[in-house]
């Protein structure tokens, strides 16, 4: 089950962290992976490592926040790979500041990167999927869209809207053979959360709050993604799967 041989997967934000683990997992199941990041050097290093594991990789540097650049880059790689069967929209940014001092320009920047650009690029890829009658789209949501937390007002707003987009797209794209789902990570050790896992007080709070008493790691999300990307999950769409060690299920 979950054999992805012959399929092509595009993973944004995949030179490290969750995206890299996702590329490794999808490639390990036989998919050709197209990895993406803003730093060409970091992306090249990630591609070399994945190829060392026998995975077929194409490196595609672009910034998700530059929609025109992103669409152009994807259209260019399509000339080589032919189509995209799986799209994992994982790239995102964060700005941490309390609501009453949160700058409007930062709110707009985070919303654009985490919602608007996801919508624009996802729609572009969905058009190609629809023409082939098949596709798997998975967004990176967040447990903060389910449970509020201080200091992440823009990120929470973007991810909550993204969860709504998943349900809306499922309603619109199902007849085209496309499923649309999201993974809502809890607190995962990545570069985006480094300032938190460097904070001993926060880690102590997290271990007390999460039933599994630990931080998540990128590989914790990989198996959930493989399931959502596989043909076998064809009757699963419009769903948000929390991968958070039980955090959002307990008081």
Automatic annotation (TrEMBL):
Superkingdom, natural source: Bacteria
Alphabetized SUPFAM superfamilies for the sequence: NAD(P)-binding Rossmann-fold domains
Domain Ketoreductase: from-to ranges: 7-186
Keywords: Oxidoreductase
GO molecular function: oxidoreductase activity
PANTHER family found in the cross-reference section: 5-KETO-D-GLUCONATE 5-REDUCTASE (PTHR43669), ALCOHOL DEHYDROGENASE, PUTATIVE (AFU_ORTHOLOGUE AFUA_3G03445)-RELATED (PTHR43669:SF3)
Family of this protein: Belongs to the short-chain dehydrogenases/reductases (SDR) family.
Protein name listed in UniProt: Gluconate 5-dehydrogenase
Organism, scientific name: Paralcaligenes ureilyticus
